[in-house]
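To close the chapter, one final illustration. This time we ask the reader to focus less on the individual chains and more on the assembly as a whole: which components sit near each other, and how the overall shape emerges from the parts.
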Amino acid sequence: KQEVTQIPAALSVPEGENLVLNCSFTDSAIYNLQWFRQDPGKGLTSLLLIQSSQREQTSGRLNASLDKSSGRSTLYIAASQPGDSATYLCACSGGGNKLTFGTGTQLKVEL
Amino acid sequence: DAGVIQSPRHEVTEMGQEVTLRCKPISGHDYLFWYRQTMMRGLELLIYFNNNVPIDDSGMPEDRFSAKMPNASFSTLKIQPSEPRDSAVYFCASSLSSGFYNEQFFGPGTRLTVL
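The assembled structure is written out below.
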C-alpha cells in the first residue's frame, strides 16, 4: 500500500526567500505525481504534474522534481510571496487513476 | 468550462438523518472521484467511476455510504444514517483518460457537519 509523507508539516518563511517542500513515497511504481495547492476553506488547485518518465516540470516560479528510485519529489518555490501562503499537497497515482495524498505542508510567507 | 461543481457547499444535519451530496464533473471527463478530507486522516479516496460505472469502492467506509452516477454529468454520494464521525469536507474530482496524464480537477468541496 502506497504511503506518502510530507515534511515539514508547517513552514514559515520571510517574503522573497526560495524554499523547498518535500514529498516521499514508499512504492516507486507510480504513474505520475501531482502537486496541489489548497487555500483555507477551498478546494484543491493542480499546480504541476510529473509523469513517471519525467524528472521535472516547471511553471512560473514553481519547479517540481521527481526521483522515482529514491521515492522522492520536491517542489521548489522561487522568490516566495505572501500570496503563496497555503497548504501544499503531493499525490501519487499508481495507475487506475487512484491518487494517494500526502498530509500536506502548511506554508506561511510573511511580509 | 465552469469546472467541477458541487452542492451544497455547506451542510449541517443531525445524527441519523440522510445526507446527499451532489457533483457535476467537467463536461467530457470520463472519470469521477469522491474524496473525504479530515484533520486526522487527510484526503482519502472513497470511490471512483469510469464512464458512469463504479470501478473501485474499497475506500467507502461502511454500508451507510453509497454513491451513484446515473449519467455522465451527475453523481451523488449518500450517507444514511449520518453519524458525527462523518463530519468532514467531501470533494468531487474529474479527469479525462485521454488528457494530460490523467490530471484530476477538484471541485470546491462540501463541508458536512453532523451534530
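The mean pLDDT of chain A is 93. Residues 31 and 95 of chain A are 6 Å apart (CA to CA). With these observations in hand, you are ready for the problems at the end of the chapter.
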